[in-house]
Structure formats: structure tokens, C-alpha cells
Amino acid sequence: MKRIHLLLYKYRVLMGVIPVAIGLLYFVLDENKRFSKPMLGTGTVVMFIGIILRIWTAMYNWENINSVEPIATNGIITNGPYRYCRNPMYFSAIILTLGFSLIFGSWQVVLIAVLPTIAVHLHQIYVEEKYLMNICNEFYDTYKKRVPRLLPYRGKVLDIPVQGKANWKRGLQRDAGPIFGGIVFAFLIAILMPFLRYDYLFLGVVVVVTVIINFIIVGKIKSDVGKVKMIPSTAPPYVLLQPLRYILFSTKKYIDNLNIDKEIENPVILDLGCGPGYYSLPLAENINGTVIAMDIREKMLQITQNRAEKKNLNNIRYLKGDSSRIDLSDNSVDLICINLVLGEIVKMDESINEMVRILKSMGRISIMESIFDDHYLNVQEVKALFEKKGFSFELVEKKKTYYILEAHK
Predict the structure, then answer these.
(1) I want to staple 218 with a disulfide (CB 3.0 to 4.6 A). Which of 16, 87, 252, 338 is the partner?
(2) Record's SUPFAM superfamilies (predicted)?
(3) In angstroms, rounded to a whole number, what is the distance separating the alpha carbons of residues 22 and 335?
(4) pTM of this prediction?
(5) CATH number of the structural domain spanning residue 247
(6) For residue 302, what are the domain limits?
(7) Would you say residue 196 has pLDDT above 90?
(8) DSSP label at 233?
(9) DSSP type of residue 198
(10) Residue 37 falls within a domain, yes or no?
(11) How many Å apart are CA 234 and CA 12, to the nearest integer?
């Protein structure tokens, strides 16, 4: 059952897009279906209500997507739309889906599009709430009791601190693509309605519509949006060790670029957020030093240890813990490897302070980020995190799908 939950969470976007595309195809292939002005008008209005709600929400949660710090100590936004429901972003996605579907005037399209979207978001809400309860404890529990989960109404939040500030510019920047796509789509249908021939025109644009749905309807722009900065990766080990990953991210090339074994005798390397040991094991195999595999999940450390024992590797230490409290001595680490993990860190400032503390005077941090990662941070965002701590930077490698940046102490 747990594996099913993980798969649902990992592939929720795909599960939302496919049913909507099927619904559109059903509409397109039915020669008797035609747009009607009442349904077109109703659907457009509902869709724009969803867009407005989405903009309002983005104004408050833009900081939680890719900023340096969580928006507040507890990481929970209670201002703006979050005073009326705990998940306004997901509510706006459902409203958008409903409006988009109503435009077609087909109850079959509405059912095929809306029900899977609701199901996907309910599961996402379940995963996020479980995590929020673990890190925010009583504060989130109080907020949860006073503000509804999805259907908005005035919550009893007068005794809860107002957290989060609006930023129109960043909010609009974040959602510019889906907002523009929704507006263009609605107006094109309104203008071209008298001339539309479904059997020819829509079969040609259904792929474009599906892409728009991916960004507008499902409610996923760049990363998971909750009331905390990021939710730790829930990807199961077999996903993190899949063969495709070895093709996309060569461990041999990565280690060669590090070149640490030639610079330092018996280096100490911390693999922060090691997962099932995708990088920890190759590092231990190819470097004459000590690798510390650290992860917040005991299961991942156990998998890493089991894999290391099969390879007879005895130069790996295992450390369970949070990056904001690293159980290592000051000035004890030569290199910290953070691969596809940085965006998942919740307490970013505390974590970077810990990295500074444990790094030796000439130590460095190797950071890999990929556009395939839900928690992707671009080069400028990563630099913003570390430069205030006095780090200098070297862009080791930059490809279309990923980059490797080194931060030198």
C-alpha cells in the first residue's frame, strides 16, 4: 500500500493529464458535438475564477517555491487565500479544470477531467498534511482545526499569527505561462467558434491542449506547492536506481569531475541526502578516503548499507539525520555532495550554516540540479543561497537537462 501511495504522489501530474486528454478526444471524435454559447460563456467565467484564485494564491506562496528561506519559522502561510482554505492552489486547479471542461458542453468530458484531478489532489493533500504535522506539530494542528482543507469559507483563524506577504510581481511571474495559455485558449474558441470543425481542427491541436492542461489544470508549474518550502522526496528506491538514471547522470563522469582524490590525501566526503547510495557507492569504490552517507530516512541508509556490503565496501559511514543538525565535528569534511536534493531542504539557512561549520578551510560543495527534478533550482537561485556565506563558485558542467556547480569555502 505504501508503494502505491508513493507512485501516486510521484506521477500525479501524468495521472491528471491523461484522463483530460482522453476526455478531449472523446469530444473531438463525436461528430454531433458542437460548442454552445451558454456553455462557452459559463466555462470561460469559471475558468477565469480559477485563474484569479491561482494568481492570488501565487502572490503568497511564491517564496515557498524557490526562495532562500521558508516564509516563516513554522513554514506555514496563513495569510491571503490561506485564511479561507488550507489548499487554495489545489482548489484553483479543480476550478480551472471544471471551467475548461464546461467549455466543451459535455458532461462526459467534465467527469473524465474533474474526477481524476480531484482524486490526484486529494492524495497529494494527504501526503503533504502528514509531513506538515511532523515538522510543524501544534501550530499546524491548530491551523488545521480552524481552516477547511479544500472548500473555502471564513476560518476561525483570529488566534493564529498571520504569516506570509503578497508579491504581485513574483506571483504573476510564476504563473505567467498558464495564465496566458488559459486566456488565449478561451478567446480563440470564442472567436473561432462559428468556424470550428471538430473532426479536423481539434485533432490537430489536442496535443497543444494537453500541454496547456499539464500547466494549467493539474496545478503543477515547477514544484510541489504546500505550506512548507518543499516536501522531501518520496521517490522509492527502485525509482532512484532505475537504469535510465545511469544514462542521464553518469557516476563515473561525476567522480572524474570532482578530482578530489588527486588533490587531497584520504578525503572525507559527505553525500548529503544519499538515498539508496547512487553516488555514495561509486565514490567509495573510486576514492581512497571515507564516504559518509547521510539521509533522513532510515530505509535509504539500510539499502545503501546492504548494497555496500555486497560490494565489500568498508570505507562508508552511515549517518541518519536532518541537514539542519549534522552530527559531525567542526572542520571535518573536505567535500559535500548534494545531488538532486538541495531543493528539498526545508530549513535552508540552518542547513547551510551546518555545511559551513563542518567544512574544512579549503572545503567545497558539489551541487547537481536537474530540470527533471520536482525541486529544481537554477544556477542563480543556488548562488543566492551560498554567496551570502562567502562562497565562490565554479560551474563545472552545464547541459540542457542538468548542471553541476561547485561552491568553494
Answers:
(1) 16
(2) S-adenosyl-L-methionine-dependent methyltransferases
(3) 49
(4) 0.50
(5) 3.40.50.150
(6) 237-408
(7) no
(8) P
(9) I
(10) yes
(11) 12
